[in-house]
């Protein structure tokens, strides 16, 4: 019964959208000056429709001579954009646009069509490209307190919008690291580098720096401070007079993991 009532609606739907292929893309995306950006896009066409493999990305607003940023027909591309934009994957369903060497004047709106359309027909659905002068500040996280001899993981996270060219990480500390990335949707990706590190006592107060280099060169760093907690074992050694002018433990409670420190007490 239900199947019967659904069928006519399905046919009607096909008739309504059958004329044009549909493009799906986000309504906004951020790009970093000098880097690249990929605007994710895919197409759907009714099964009966013969699939055109043509994609034309229009710029809006634009003068007629800078109106087409990408077309499968290269002759249609405006000379100001030639060689700066390309499709990431050449399949009939994938219309993801990659713009290289992002410039300030790329702050515009863009929309794809199956063919070049008249400048007099502005699109109502488009993607706004925002151009940032510098990449987003990475998020650096590590345990608030570390203990000598303990291995810690320091994580540096950064977002990027150029899916096929992820940023690279550089640490000022030496240790094994693993990098992972995840798709946050709408063209935003997150990448993280996990550095495994075993701090030594004399590194207390020193700076951890993670530098993220985006494709094309834009670079940004985040810093944090190593904070080593004195633990019981450590202080027993100190209290035995191994080193002078070292903090002495004040044993206040058995349950406490960390003990109150009394500074400037001469140890002998
Ligand atoms: C389009 O191609 C890109 C690059 O290969 C890929 O990451 C993306 O998932 C594709 N999109 C779809 C909808 O298939
Ligand atoms: C990445 O972007 C998401 C969504 O916009 C945001 O919630 C998150 O805080 C960002 N992460 C970093 C490391 O900037
Ligand atoms: C990186 O570290 C974070 C936080 O400690 C953890 O959630 C994540 O699973 C780690 N990823 C890898 C690949 O080790
Ligand atoms: C490390 O420095 C912090 C802050 O200066 C201090 O509270 C802590 O006791 C120091 N740890 C060691 C092991 O000296
Ligand atoms: C150790 O701590 C206790 C409790 O805080 C305090 O009463 C005592 O005076 C401290 N001892 C020294 C040597 O500072």
UniProtKB/TrEMBL annotation:
<keyword id="KW-0393">Immunoglobulin domain</keyword>
<protein>
    <recommendedName>
        <fullName>Ig-like domain-containing protein</fullName>
    </recommendedName>
</protein>
<dbReference type="Pfam" id="PF00047">
    <property type="entry name" value="ig"/>
</dbReference>
<dbReference type="InterPro" id="IPR003599">
    <property type="entry name" value="Ig_sub"/>
</dbReference>
<feature type="signal peptide">
    <location>
        <begin position="1"/>
        <end position="18"/>
    </location>
</feature>
<dbReference type="Pfam" id="PF07686">
    <property type="entry name" value="V-set"/>
</dbReference>
<dbReference type="InterPro" id="IPR013106">
    <property type="entry name" value="Ig_V-set"/>
</dbReference>
<dbReference type="InterPro" id="IPR036179">
    <property type="entry name" value="Ig-like_dom_sf"/>
</dbReference>
<dbReference type="InterPro" id="IPR013151">
    <property type="entry name" value="Immunoglobulin_dom"/>
</dbReference>
<keyword id="KW-0732">Signal</keyword>
<dbReference type="InterPro" id="IPR013783">
    <property type="entry name" value="Ig-like_fold"/>
</dbReference>
<feature type="domain" description="Ig-like">
    <location>
        <begin position="135"/>
        <end position="227"/>
    </location>
</feature>
<dbReference type="InterPro" id="IPR007110">
    <property type="entry name" value="Ig-like_dom"/>
</dbReference>
């Amino acid at each position: 019964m239900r199947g019967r009532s659904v069928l006519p609606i399905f046919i009607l739907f096909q008739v309504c959208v059958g004329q044009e292929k549909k493009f799906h893309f986000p309504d906004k995306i951020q790009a970093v000056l000098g880097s690249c950006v990929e605007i994710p896009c895919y197409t759907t066409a009714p099964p009966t429709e013969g699939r055109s493999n043509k994609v034309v990305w229009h710029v809006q607003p634009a003068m007629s001579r800078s109106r087409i940023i990408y077309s499968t027909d290269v002759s249609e591309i405006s000379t100001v954009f030639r060689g700066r934009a390309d499709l990431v994957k050449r399949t009939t369903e994938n219309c993801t646009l990659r713009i290289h060497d992002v410039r300030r004047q790329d702050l515009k709106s863009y929309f794809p069509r199956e063919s070049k359309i008249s400048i007099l027909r502005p699109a109502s659905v488009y993607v706004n490209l925002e151009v940032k002068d510098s990449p987003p500040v990475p998020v650096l996280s590590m345990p608030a307190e570390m203990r000598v001899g303990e291995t810690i993981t320091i994580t540096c996270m950064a977002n990027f919008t150029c899916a096929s060219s992820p940023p690279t990480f550089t640490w000022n500390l030496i240790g094994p690291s693993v990098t992972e990335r995840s798709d946050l949707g709408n063209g935003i990706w997150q990448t993280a580098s996990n550095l495994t590190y075993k701090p030594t006592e004399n590194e207390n107060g020193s700076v951890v720096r993670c530098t993220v280099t985006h494709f094309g060169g834009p670079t940004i760093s985040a810093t944090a401070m190593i904070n080593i907690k004195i633990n019981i074992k450590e202080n027993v050694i100190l209290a035995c007079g191994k080193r002078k002018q070292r903090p002495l433990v004040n044993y206040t409670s058995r349950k406490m993991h960390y003990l109150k420190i009394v500074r400037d007490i001469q140890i002998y």
